[in-house]
Sequence to fold (240 residues):
Amino acid sequence: MSYAKLFDASRCTACRGCQKACKTWNQDPAEKTSNRGTYQNPPDLSAQTRTVVKFKEQEGGENGIIWTFFKDSCRHCIEPACKMIADGVDDKAVVVTDTGAVVYNERTAKVEGMNCGYNIPKQEKEGAPYFKCTLCFERITNGLQPACVTACATGALNFGKREDIINLAKKRVEQIKGRYPEAHIASDYAEVNYIQVLHYKDEMFEMAADIDKQRKIKTASRRDLLNPKKAAGMLSKLLS
Ligand code: SF4
Ligand code: SF4
Ligand code: SF4
Fold:
């Protein structure tokens, strides 16, 4: 059964409980960071941080400033660009599971220069393991919710059957339209298992993900499937 996770930006208070729960569950260490004049901390995803709450100020709204938050992590793509790259080296290095979770393993480290249009996979150094959100594969296959969802007190995160999550996302958009007329579901929703309800048009976080690049990789790799080594090299270049 395919599952999905929902992030509803209109309900996120940026408490970062999800970020902390993710680290605790995965036993990922804390990172040494510095004050960069923002609450966003650590600055981005890394080999120690599989999900990060991003902060952004934009012009607009009643008071001239809109503050938005976004929980960034792997989108668990239905046809993942990272897998297309990895398949050029080892077709078992990235596994798309029946649950919808895209899972890495010990073979993934052998793939050089792996990336995607969402800029997700991270490694400490070349040859080291790649880290990213697992969709809490061990939890969801044992009847539990992902740790980040369990920690979210506001209902900004939900997890369930993919079709239920899409219906919930549509319902949420209808519920918040009165307050946020530009509310919408992020445009990549048909291609991922991390569905986002965004409350402003062109919300910067949607823009930050290079969805077009992600699509380009898929088209290119399909064309070159007969020569996977060539495809891997070409796709890495496309992503750099
Ligand atoms: S726990 Fe929920 S409300 Fe808090 S930052 Fe994460 S998604 Fe937002
Ligand atoms: S978001 Fe990136 S790392 Fe995650 S499954 Fe999609 S292509 Fe792979
Ligand atoms: S699903 Fe699990 S691994 Fe992914 S961000 Fe949530 S807690 Fe972290």
Observations:
- The longest strand covers residues 52-59.
